[in-house]
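Form 7-S
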Amino acid sequence: MARKGKSVQAIYENLSQRDVQSAADELRPLYDMMDGEDGYVSLEVNPHLAHDTNGTIQEAHRLWAALDRPNVLIKVPATANGLPAIQQLISEGINVNVTLLFGLPRYRQVAEAYIAGIESRAAQGKSIERVASVASFFVSRIDALVDPLLEKFNAETGKRASFAKKAHGQVAIASAKMAYQIYKEMFGSDRFGKLTAEGALVQRLLWASTGTKNPDYSDVKYVEALIGPATVNTAPLKTLDAYRDHGEPKARLEQDVEEARSVLERLPELNISIDDVTRQLEGEGVAKFNEPFDKLMETLAQRSLRRSASAS
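Output:
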């Protein structure tokens, strides 16, 4: 493609779209067998559009048309500017993987955007069957940021120190468990029940960032604790292999829910704001999406230049 004078952007899109189409075709029999509940592949919009509502919508339209597969999801960040894009795309029947989701208030907004999009589509008299979405809740990064804040209390004694020790390594799972309670509330409501009767799919919770970052923790910590109905876990291969080797399957997502709620409610006692934490993680998450994307484009540019030079 470089020798034919294709731009770096065109080369990237050709390669990425071909990969996603190939994977979608491989999973199409599963998608058909499961009536659209499983068998999806995601492709993200340009991460630099994370705060650009209209740009995200336009790019999603273009990618959806180019991929031309029913079992793909267009990945859209769960920023404030991403919310109206999510609702609009769902209303148009475009499948969405809502990514970079950290906080519970934002998750509620994401679920609302999905339901409102489905309602809008139904109101237009259009089919809402097989319009799919997942809400990708990032897990281990929460502990990676909060644990050092809790460790500041290691030298203390008393109730605060005792709670800090108890909460260490538990905030991420507590957040995920409370997210699942919100999921049950919103998708078990009479409001969504009417849409289910018309064929609507729930927006499933997807656990992302489930590789264990702290070597002191179990390597299947963020898999075992989050097993529950209608959820997805995008485990890294190393984590998946570890779970195959020594994981213990059991539905644990709804265990100790009140304890999880208590952990989150008591964090202000340690001057820790979970909302501040998740806002920081969202900002860092956008940057972490941008950096590898830019490095990829830079690599493609360098290799394209060499190919072009060799051709001439």
